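Bump. Still looking for DUF3817 domain-containing protein structure tokens.
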Amino acid sequence: MKDETIKLRSDLKKLKFLLIGLTIIELANILLMFTRDVLWFKFYNLQWVIFGIHYSIAAIFIWFIWKKMPLEKKSKSNNTFLILFFGIIGMWLWMPNKKEVNKLIQKQS
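Sorry for the wait, here they are.
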């Protein structure tokens, strides 16, 4: 049981680092879009790469919610809709803090 809790915490940290990286990419893209119009149009095809990264990470989050998180089915579906409809903001809203992680681990035990 202890190994599962350590693995859950480790996986959540990895997801947080992925989310930080995605946030930096998205913020840089928005900053580029509003400040350097010519440069943004020059790198317009890069948008498809950014969309691909965004939806790949969203798919990882949804997979993690359904396969790894010890939650009820209704809560899992609510979290999935949160990520799908709110995107990166939904991912940040879903990310559990330390108190929530401890509560999940106690439920799991």
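The two ends are 7 Å apart (CA to CA).

Edit: fixed formatting.
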